[in-house]
Records
---
Amino acid sequence: MNNFEFKNPTKIIFGKNTIEKLENEIPKDAKVLLLYGGGSIKKNGIYDQVKTALAKVDVLEFGGIPANPEYAVLLEALKIIKDENITYLLAVGGGSVIDGTKFLASAALFEGDRPWDILSKNIRTEEGMPFGTVLTLPATGSEMNSGSVITRAETKEKLAMGGPGLFPEFSILDPQVIVSIPQRQLANGLTDAFTHVLEQYMTYPIGALLQDRFAESILQTLIEVAPKVLKDPTDYKAASNFMWSCTMALNGLIQKGVPTDWAVHAIGHELTALFGIDHARTLAIIAPSHYKFNFETKKEKLAQYAERVWNITEGSIEDKANAAIEKTEAFFHQLGINTKLSDYTKDYEGTAENISERFTTRGWVALGEHKSLSPDKVESIVKMAY
Ligand code: NZQ
Ligand code: ZN
């Protein structure tokens, strides 16, 4: 096992009717900016619950953060934060609203002139404006990690940022929120969380027995609850296990002491930036090709995953590893998620070369757990995913 340090300061408040506990978490003298997305919270009652809990707090609001949080929109919120001397941020939404809020938490205290530098120059956020979240969509794990991904439509870029200053102070996870989530977003959430585990697991064995079993148990739980969540989002047992699995998939725990990959995300983010494809779907497009292309270096973990998660016990390591890739793709299909780029766009020609060029320009020339995934290999993987 590799050496590691682990600190996750986010307080999780989990369970039925927990949104009312907001009242206890926000400092009494805070001036709060409540941030939300396109308005789903106004239809499903979450907004009312939040406002009731905040009755005694000084609150302004900023709505309209789109899926794939857009830089230009966030700059409008940043102006309000500065003009109104906001001291505390509250994100009520899914990964996009939470990530947008993280950007704002960082930008609010950023001393440079161009907040985009935080993303383009990869500036780590050591300290941000304090913020909390009310999660409305289980998927990204953003509610308990310090990462954020921001989109800039003007340049068709989608870049990540982060740092120890960007953990939420608290996150409220009431699994009942999933009843209003459209099927498409439920399937996205399951796929995103599943792939988060794969990115931190599908590398090479390093003797981290516990981390491997943590990862496998999250995958098994997601596979078990997926059909139940899709069939009946009011099934609380399924909803609560779905929600906690998504959080645990990317709160840092399973990646400690093990090699990680994250190339599927790096490539997938480009497909969202270029074509607007939902984040989770880009992962389902890239993951199967990525595992086929890197078969030799990943086959031992692929075979372990085949045995322990999919109960494939027959055949050689190669047979099991191949079967595991097929099972993974079939799982995405079962969720209603297509796994080829051509299923989403007719204009896919040239995408592989474009992404490879972008990675070269950014100096992303050595991705993956062995730092050996060069842009030409990325190009081959994307072509395989057409
Ligand atoms: O905007 P509203 O009206 O709220 O509607 C949203 C949005 O249209 C809707 N929704 C959310 N909760 C709902 C609901 N509809 C009905 N009922 C509810 N309870 O769902 C749509 C999608 O929301 P979004 O927040 O975009 O989805 P998700 O949570 O999947 O977040 C995706 C974003 O997170 C980033 C992705 O790149 C993408 O930008 N990621 C963030 C990560 C992180 N910070 O750790 C890691 C991930 O890998 C990912 O990159
Ligand atoms: Zn993801």
---
Amino acid sequence: MLLGCKDEKKTDMPETTQAKTKSSIVKSDYATTKEGVKIEKYTLTNANGMKMEVITMGGDIISLTAPDKDGKFEDVVLGYTTPDLYLDGNPYFFGAIIGRYGNRIAKGKFTLDGKPYQLTVNDGPNSLHGGKGFDKRVWTATPVEGDAPALKLTYTAKDGEEGYPGKLNVTVTYVLSNDNALEISYEAESDKNTVVNLTQHSYFNLSGNFAESIESQELELKAGKYLPVDATLIPTGELKAVAGTPFDFTKAKAIGKDINVADDQLKKGLGYDHCWIFDDAANTLKSVGSLYHKASGRYMEVLTTEPAIQFYSGNFIDGTKDSKTGGKYQKRSGLCLETQHYPDSPNQPSFPITTLKAGEKYSTKTTYKFSVK
Ligand code: BGC
């Protein structure tokens, strides 16, 4: 079903700058869960022909194409080849909306307003990505009218769901802008004081060939500090300077350059799986880094209102799942750039607060902007 369609051809624009296609958003049936719930798929196409597929399970982005320097569009996000893995737990969190709390909370415990809470523990001794989190929930999708294709996804988490206090209404909106940016806004409101840390778990590989490791892609993070972790990947509380360490991405650097050096933190994460703290902590949409694949020329700039980012270099991908481009996904087939607040903040008073008070509005934005250079 064609839901929205805008002819982006503007007659007063010179021919060379005219957009080539119409933007559109098309809804189709995707699959049915074991419980009989129908999962829909929405295909968003912007005026340049960039395409994104989103399903209502987890709000998962299952594909996203971007042009290379010759104008060739290829999929730049990892995804499964069959619906069952999305429907049945999404083991790698491919493309998913993450919540109620992105990343780990130590032992799944925290205290809020003097009251202790016990969350679902699902990662060693800790709670990861909200337990049976928002990635494993069915969202309601509504296309949004506008110049560019946009999809609004809503989900209501129950009071006490996975151990968290407060009924939480969540809205995540994806816009595929006509300047080739994926703009994501996250909004939430709770009826009780709670903790919230929402993010997106797409695995990028700008080469468009998932058999190619992300190690040659160049990452820049405008972050002079990162959070060292303990053996269970919980931040120790220290904010460590990246200067002189393998964690220094203040100047664009190939991800593989230092990933195998002898370093206790790299050993703990089996590679990069840490939170970097942006130098600019402002709650405004600011450029915080980029990813670049030289051979294709694809360049992705990251902008966010968030103070930090979890850069995860796909260390736990175990070679068991089929790849969209053939073969199996391997360690380092893709990487996540999860803009967020710091992991375990509810237990770490020195970290920026992640409490959302009853009736207050949670609102953050992140943009992944594609171009070539
Ligand atoms: C975490 C990893 C985890 C992965 C799950 C990332 O956000 O930092 O430790 O294994 O999500 O795919």
